[in-house]
Amino acid sequence: MLICTTKKELREAIAAQKSGGKSVGFVPTMGALHQGHASLFKRARAENDLFVASVFVNPIQFNNPDDLKNYPRDFEADRRLLEAEGCDIAFHPSVEEMYPEGGKVERYNFGSLETVMEGAQRPGHFAGVGVVVGLLFRLVEPTRAYFGEKDFQQVAVIKELVRQMGIPTQIVPCPIKRGEDGLALSSRNALLTPENRAKAPFIYETLKASLELASRPCREVKDFVESRIASCPLMKLEYFEIADPDSLQSVPDDKPAVGNQGFIVVWMGSVRLIDNIHYGAL
Ligand code: PAF
Question: Does domain 187-277 have CATH number 3.90.950.10?
């Protein structure tokens, strides 16, 4: 596996290895890699001639300086996992390399996709994601790019990004990878205290239990989820929303949940956990 730390090295490495119309599978990450990332890597490896990944903690998508400071970083462990998953080129730039002083970046406007849920709670987050993923897409020019559905709203934003950039990259959403106890895998899980880690699967248990109410009005489903989470003293609900899976606009309280997506954010101590579930037909 080749490790590139500059844009120039990356461009040259891709140009050298991509010749002859080879397909490129790309997985952008912020490192602290786990089996959720590995499931994306496996697909990128299996479905493309070249597999490229990036490891970059993007400061401009954090709206909370403590979150940025505490974000787990271990490039040595990341490198080992990428190598084991058959990565051809890993891009691991510094902040200065990605955002040179005085350099210009392309900005995008995701309209209503970025003003709801994660966009409303984390102002500027999706603008920052758009800038970095746009930059990476221009460098890598991937045939396919892989994103986990744990960040469901991010997938919608990235699809819109590709549309606005006018590039042919296919966005491949990948199902949420969960631990055996049901907790959605996340780099942030490593920051949970043992007591909070043991209780955290209750979030997904609650979402799964709420599927029974799919045919009921959204208000009933919300009441159910809100009261279950409130019953756990270790958890603080930031929001639970039921929204259309394409537009991400919230479904009126009197309409049934079925066909829509439930989105939850729960704090456990200083760790923010997110998850989502689809209310399919019963
Ligand atoms: O999902 C992530 O890890 C990040 O938001 C991404 C897509 C790598 C952009 O920094």
Answer: no
Using a 6 Å cutoff on CB, does residue 61 contact ligand 1?
yes
Q: Which of 78, 133, 147 to mutate to test the pocket of ligand 1 (most atoms within 8 A of CB)?
A: 133
Q: Which CATH architecture has domain 2-174?
A: 3-Layer(aba) Sandwich (3.40)
From the CA of 270, how far away is ligand 1's center (Å)?
Answer: 20
The domain spans of the chain are 2-174, 187-277
Q: What is the mean pLDDT of residues 133-158?
A: 98
Question: Is residue 125 annotated as a catalytic residue, yes or no?
Answer: no
Summarize the confidence of residues 90-95 as an average pLDDT. 98
Q: What's the pLDDT at 20? A: 86
* 77 closest CA partner among 27, 32, 26: 32
1-45: per-residue pLDDT in tens? 999 999 999 999 999 998 888 999 999 999 999 999 999 999 999
